[in-house]
Design brief:
- It is a single chain.
- The chain has a domain at about 10-70.
- It is about 70% helix and about 0% strand.
- The protein has 19 helices and two strands.
- The protein has a two-stranded antiparallel sheet with strand order 1-2.
- About 45% of the residues are buried.
Length: about 325
């Protein structure tokens, strides 16, 4: 046995300290891990300190972050955990989060090097947005074009959290510019609906007709989740205008998410009359309406079809035995 203990033993000590996180002995154990050289132990201690709000250790979290910022903790494991802890403990120190926001850490990988600090930048951006840092929009305007997708996603989430007219404009510009990763564009559309649903509905609806089905689906789900009275009409219109079965199957869930009576009636009709694959997609989407009043209507619609695919979709969605 190693005299100073193995990593597993030290981690076990932290877990024991977690049972009484405010005792002097436990705080000493957390502090030792935070100020030690092992990134995994520092990250574990930071998570425990944040979970139990051991605010006496905030200075140690800060000191640990600054120390790890000057060294290569692989994957930014410690730095990211420390920032998350400080954010959760509501320690507002803009300069610390700005240091993390501007940090780039290149690590060797097969065939070259990769920046592993993208999640760190994203977390710092969100913290600055939550704390109301005055110049956060200027920082986010840069981060939303970051080379790393995780950082761009973080910028979009921070802009959404701000819920300001300026962040709405940035999200519109980013959505129009597009992204190499379509889910980033999708996050922009969701953010717009959250910030200004009525004003954003026509803008988001434009993306239903785009060439990227993933972006179209993100737009459709954003519209459905808005539950605006106009959302069903927009989605229904695109359904009627499309001859693409895959597009219609994709629209079934967003239509259900509007949760309006018109959507329920429409999807029940789709189950009874549409092609079996489209009908099966409608059955799965109708899970959104599952309650004592709606389930018999959904079951009855599925039972009108002598189609194994439709009945199987019902059984899978509602965990029921169709008897077939």
């Amino acid at each position: 046995m190693a005299r100073k203990g193995t990593f597993e033993q030290k981690l076990a000590q932290l877990r024991r300290a977690e049972q009484d996180p405010f005792s002097a002995k436990s705080i000493a154990a957390f502090r030792k891990a935070l100020l030690g050289a092992n990134k995994a132990l520092a990250a574990a201690a930071a998570a425990i300190v944040a979970q139990y709000a051991v605010t006496d250790l905030i200075p140690d979290l800060v000191a640990s972050f600054d120390r790890f910022l000057g060294r290569q903790d692989k994957g930014c494991l410690a730095k990211t955990a420390l920032v998350e802890a400080l954010d959760r403990l509501e320690h507002y120190e803009p300069e610390l989060f700005l240091r993390g926001l501007h940090h780039v850490q290149m690590e060797p990988v097969y065939g070259g090097r990769v920046d592993t600090a993208a999640n760190l930048r994203a977390n710092c951006a969100l913290a600055l947005a939550r704390f109301g840092y005055p110049d956060v929009l200027f920082e986010l305007a840069t981060l939303v074009m970051d080379p790393q997708v995780e950082a761009r996603r973080g910028a979009v989430k921070a802009l959404t959290h701000l819920a300001r007219d300026e962040s709405e404009l940035l999200l519109r510009v980013k959505a129009l510019a597009g992204d190499a990763e379509p889910d980033v564009t999708g996050e922009c559309l969701h953010g717009l609906i959250q910030i200004a649903p009525e004003r954003s509905l026509p803008f988001v609806a434009r993306f239903l007709g785009g060439p990227d089905l993933f972006v179209a689906e993100a737009a459709a789900i954003a519209l459905g989740e808005s539950r605006l009275p106009e959302a069903f009409g927009v989605l229904h219109s695109h359904w009627e205008d499309s001859i693409d079965p895959a597009f219609k199957e994709m629209l079934a869930l967003p239509i259900a998410l509007t949760r309006c009576d018109e959507a329920l009636a429409f999807l029940l009709d789709v189950v009874e009359t549409a092609h079996r694959d489209t009908a099966a997609a409608a059955v799965r989407a109708l899970k959104v309406f599952d309650d004592d009043a709606c389930r018999p209507r959904i079951r009855a619609a599925a039972d009108t079809r002598d189609e194994p695919a439709v009945r199987r979709a019902y059984a899978e969605a509602f965990q029921a035995d169709t008897g077939s």
